[in-house]
Fold this sequence. Notes:
- The chain has 7 helices and 14 strands.
- By secondary structure, the protein is α/β, with parallel strands linked by helices.
- The longest helix is centred in the last third of the chain and has 11 residues, at 196-206.
- The model has no long low-confidence stretch (mean pLDDT 97).
Amino acid sequence: MKLIVLGASGTWPNPGSATSGYLVQHDGFNLWVDAGTGTLANLQRHIDLADIHGIVISHEHPDHFVDLYPCFYARHYGEIGTPDLPVFVPTDFTQKLADVVSVDSQVVMRRAFAFTEVAPGESFEVGPFRVKTEPMAHLGIPALGFRMNADGAVFAYTGDTGPTHRIGEIARDANLFLTEATWQDRDDLLPFHLSSRQAAIQAREAGVGRLVLTHIWPTLDKEVSRGQAAEEYIGPIDLATEGASFEVAE
Ligand SMILES: [Zn+2]
Ligand SMILES: [Zn+2]
């Protein structure tokens, strides 16, 4: 399995960067995980638009999904690729997504995309991936954390979350744990995002093989985030940056 970072900026992008988005590949299957601002452009540095085989969205915040719209335009109006692209979204999200476009476009969006709503805690399969979800702690909305298994290799991704024991459920013994690490040490941490230290504690307790920090608040120094994480987790720690790729292997 291979993870390619398409966007890693927390909430809004710095110049030349993009918000959350990842390409997860295995056995010729291209799964686009989160579709934040700028990630569709970056995706095309790696694969053609026609070769997206599935999409997974973690939650309904725009920094994780807005590039679904240009993808829809390209796939439907641009006639790139085939209809019925599998798109997995959290509960109650499909209609919210459709409400932004015209009624006519809503009809054809449902032809371009074959939506499946996933309740946090449900599992599904897409291509070679067996995906287990867990409910994340994120402002009371349906927010999915993912444990993706393909031929024994395990990739875990939090989406956005605050501290919750559910993170351990997705991350346990994962070969690679991609976690939000929005903040750094401070006195007023809030319950809907993690600091890099909190993320690293989760990684240590789950026994993951590699820790990759993402969704860091754009104004923060990422090396400080890495340093605070390294005080809690002794394994390899990487910062997610656009274009970086990682092998996920047992
Ligand atoms: Zn976010
Ligand atoms: Zn969010």
